[in-house]
Structure formats: structure tokens, C-alpha cells
Amino acid sequence: MILDCDPGHDDALAIMLAAADARLDLLAITTVAGNTTLDKATLNARRVCTIAGISRVPVAAGCDRPLVAELRVADDIHGESGLDGPAFGEPTVPLAGEHAVALMRRLLLDHPEPVTLVPTGPLTNVATLLRDHPEVAPKIREIVLMGGSTERGNISPYGEFNIFVDPEAADLVFRAGLPVTMIGLNVTHQALVTPDVVARFRALGTPLAEACVELMTFFGSAYERVFGLADPPLHDPIAVARVIDPSLVACVPAPVAVELTGAHTRGATVVDLHRRTGALPNAQVALDLDVPRFWDLLVDALTRLSGSP
Ligand code: BDR
Ligand code: CA
């Protein structure tokens, strides 16, 4: 799989899970502007790889702004750096020379088997890939994205951040005719980082686990301040978990449209769960997470990553 992300606290744990689980072959980590600017998201991806000891996966920077909209970052949630909390040293993991979209294209065309794309930020890179290089389509096994919601949003009443930041890109991806799985807020809000979860991280006793505790502490205080939620939802790793073990996330097929013009609802995912529109399903929409097994999977991943001091 290729992880396309905008780290981001929950993206950071998605990187760790994707790199650690033996059932996945993580071919690349690509970055996109979203939670923070592209430069900061890319630096953060390299920081995460450095502290987690992930040294053999290329990290490439992609698009620095949405297809049409102005970039809106989430510094209220992720802080000024995009990954506030721990003190990071200078990353030792290098930046690949290739643009993320070129790297994705090359990896897809070169790989003997179809590859799963896991976008956990705005869909700008993936949409650009599909728009400019349609020849890759048969090499994409599936797109398992964190974004959207069957219910309310988090950046606007009905807009989820990743879709809201680049709705035109999301529209292109949902209408591409490829297998898409949507891991939306309705399911990610089942994975709440409770004090018990933080205690499990802390009990691992490694510098990496301690950094995760610090990340979750910052993330939790931001969620409390902005949303009044005591325990923050860990969105992005759920998309990775779905690829590792599909039985962790129950999905239903449904038509999904991205609202591009609504006066109050631009960036909303309109999910026709009751199939009232007559449209054909274009996505598997996640509804339920096996919460205990998800946390076991993540803690196990953190146990297996050696990290670096
Ligand atoms: C999504 O938005 C970002 O802030 C998170 O990293 C996640 O990908 C949740 O709406
Ligand atoms: Ca993200």
C-alpha cells in the first residue's frame, strides 16, 4: 500500500501502524497540504519515520494546495507545527527527490500486483494522479480513504476536514469508478483515545511510546478545547486497520456524492444509505469498528517498532 498523509497527530499513528504490521508492504509515504502546509507535513512525516525507526520507506512531497480551493489548515487541532507535543530532533530520514504523484505513478506501474492507496489527508495528490495519469487505474486495487461522514462534520456542520479542504479532488476520486472505501467520522468517533488507551501506550515504556503519549495528550487537549470532547477520536489509523484486517471495520455499499456548491454544505459527503436516489453504490461506507481489536492492533504495532532514541 501507499499511505498519502498530512501529519497530523492521527496521521503519525497511521504511519506507525502501516510500517509496523507484517501483513502490509508499505511502498511509500507521500505527503499533501492539509492539517498543515506541505513543507511542515513533509517534515513531520520524516520526523515520525525517524523516531519510529522507519528508514526503508521513501517519503515524497506532493501537492501544496487544493485543486481549486484555498488551503485551509487545522492548526487549532494539530498546533503550529502540525504535530505539536513532543520535542523532535532533526530528522535523519531523507526526502525523496521525486514528486509524490510521480512516485505513486511509478510504483503503481512497476509493482507486479495492484496496490492499495490509503489517503488520510485531502485527496489532492490522489485526484491529480487519476486526472493526469489515467493509465494507473488498473493498478489500483482499492482506495481506502479517511474522510467524509454519514452524519455531521468537524470543520463545518456537515463538512469533514479532508473532504472540505479539497472537495473537487474528493469529487473526482468518488466518481473515478474505482473501488473506494470511505472511513468517515461516523466510524472514527468510535475510536476514542481514552485514559486507558494512553496508559497502554505509556506501559510500553519506549521513547516511541512516550512520544505517542505526548502526541495524544496535545491532541486530546485540542479536542477538548474545540469540541468539548474529553477523549479525541483517532481517525486515520482506522483506514490502515481496514486494509490490514477488513473484518475490523464493517462497511455497506452506498452511493456517495460530494457537495460542491451548497451554500452551507460545501465539502459534505452525501451518503445515500437508504438508497433513495436510485444511484448505484460507488463506495463501501464504514459503519462500525471493532474497537477492542483495533486498539490491540495499534498497541501491537507500537510494540514491534523499535524506534530510535
Ligand atoms: C481528519 O482531519 C485531520 O485533521 C485528521 O488528520 C484526519 O485525517 C479528520 O477529519
Ligand atoms: Ca490526516
From TrEMBL:
<feature type="domain" description="Inosine/uridine-preferring nucleoside hydrolase">
    <location>
        <begin position="1"/>
        <end position="296"/>
    </location>
</feature>
<protein>
    <submittedName>
        <fullName>Ribosylpyrimidine nucleosidase</fullName>
    </submittedName>
</protein>
<dbReference type="GO" id="GO:0008477">
    <property type="term" value="F:purine nucleosidase activity"/>
</dbReference>
<dbReference type="GO" id="GO:0006152">
    <property type="term" value="P:purine nucleoside catabolic process"/>
</dbReference>
<dbReference type="InterPro" id="IPR001910">
    <property type="entry name" value="Inosine/uridine_hydrolase_dom"/>
</dbReference>
<dbReference type="InterPro" id="IPR036452">
    <property type="entry name" value="Ribo_hydro-like"/>
</dbReference>
<dbReference type="Pfam" id="PF01156">
    <property type="entry name" value="IU_nuc_hydro"/>
</dbReference>
<keyword id="KW-0378">Hydrolase</keyword>
<dbReference type="GO" id="GO:0005829">
    <property type="term" value="C:cytosol"/>
</dbReference>
<dbReference type="InterPro" id="IPR023186">
    <property type="entry name" value="IUNH"/>
</dbReference>
<keyword id="KW-0326">Glycosidase</keyword>
